[in-house]
Amino acid sequence: MKHLLGIQTLDKTTIELIFETATEFKNVLNRPIKKVPSLRDITVANIFFENSTRTRLSFELAEKRLSADVVNFTASSSSVKKGETLLDTVNNILAMKVDMVVMRHASVGAAQFIADRTAAQVINAGDGTHEHPTQGLLDAFSVREKLGEVAGKKIAIIGDIMHSRVALSNIFTFLKLGAEVRVCGPATLIPRHIAALGVSVSHQVQETLAWCDVANVLRIQLERQQIKYFPSLREYAAYFGITKAMLDNLNKPIVLMHPGPVNRGIELSSDAADSPHSIILDQVENGVAVRMAVLYLMAQYRDKILAVSA
Ligand code: NCD
After folding, report:
1. Are the C-beta atoms of residues 167 and 189 closer than 8 Å to each other?
2. Among 188, 234, 251, 310, which residue is least crowded by beta carbons within 10 Å?
3. Integer Cα distance of 295 and 18 in angstroms
């Protein structure tokens, strides 16, 4: 892999290779000495133009566990505020001999834009409403770990499908691995032609929970909504919010997921988020191993290119 810009262009074999590599790294993470030297000569810049807790820390930990040199850049405290362009900002960082860039940006295609114009290897850590590939990978890895396999499983993605990059990366990953995927939410938050991707659509959360093996619940992305898509958060919670009682009353096993940050009391009640159905914190743990796998495989690509040009 030269870059990781989205799941859409990844094939099943590569996804499976990432999972096998991540399984090895998860074992490493559970050892007393959690560090391996794989990225010892590589410098990674984490360039975040949007807020992040989990993803940035997870990438940083993954890089450090692989012995990379790490620099962090947060747009809110940078010269972006003085009017510098995205390309100039990134080129200035690269001039300091950075090899890989992990980037989050509010614009769709930002990671692709940088990958097309610089020599760095780029990982997309979320580009607007488009893709968040490592989240799709860690979600599918977590399902595989919990249920043994992904193929044949019924996966429901519930919430703000329209504005979530997690939704699209999840749809691509789970479909490529042979799962059935359904999206569920208010009609205004579901893109009109989404069924063309091969997913089914529902507006009934209760019926969707009864259908699925896994419910991946997404946050309402209010920061991306320029108009009102539903009357109030209170009404959204009443129609689409999921409680522990709803999950318990299904009388079947169900796996509850959420990429975080959870808005407790809106898409999930606190008792649902903290219930035994939930694997939310396992997702976070797996995120580090999956990102280590992606970085490791990308570094292998780099080594191969350097060997050829030597
Ligand atoms: C998601 C994101 O930023 O796209 N969070 C994450 O990366 N764990 C989802 C969200 O913000 O709701």
Report:
1. no
2. 310
3. 10
Binding site membership of 102 for ligand 1 (Cβ less than 6 Å): no
How much distance in Å is there from the Cα of 152 to the middle of ligand 1? 26
Q: Which atom of ligand 1 is nearest to the CA of 135?
A: 7
User: Is the CB of 165 inside a 6 Å radius of any atom of ligand 1?
Assistant: yes
Both 140 and 245 in one domain: the answer is yes
CB atoms within 10 A of CB 289: 25
Q: 164 C-alpha vs ligand 1 centroid, how far in Å?
A: 8
Contact assessment for residue 156 and residue 167, using Cβ atoms and an 8 Å cutoff = no
Q: What distance in Å separates the CA atoms of residue 208 and residue 230, rounded to the nearest whole number? A: 20
> Is 67 within the bounds of a domain?
yes
141 to 20, 21, 144, 168, 198: CA distances (angstroms): 10, 11, 5, 16, 21
Closest-CA residue to 126 (of 92, 168, 94): 168
CA of 52 to the centre of ligand 1 (A): 8
3-state secondary structure at position 114: helix
What is the pairing mode between strands 69-74 and 255-257?
unpaired
With a 6 Å cutoff on the Cβ, whether 283 touches ligand 1 is no
Contact 209, 157 (CB under 8 A): no
Domain count, the chain: 2
172 and 266 assigned to the same domain: yes
Tell me how far apart the alpha carbons of residues 278 and 162 are, in angstroms, rounded to a whole number. 24
- Residue 198 pLDDT level (bands cut at 50, 70, 90): very high
pLDDT tens per residue across span 25-66: 999 999 999 999 999 999 999 999 998 989 999 999 999 999
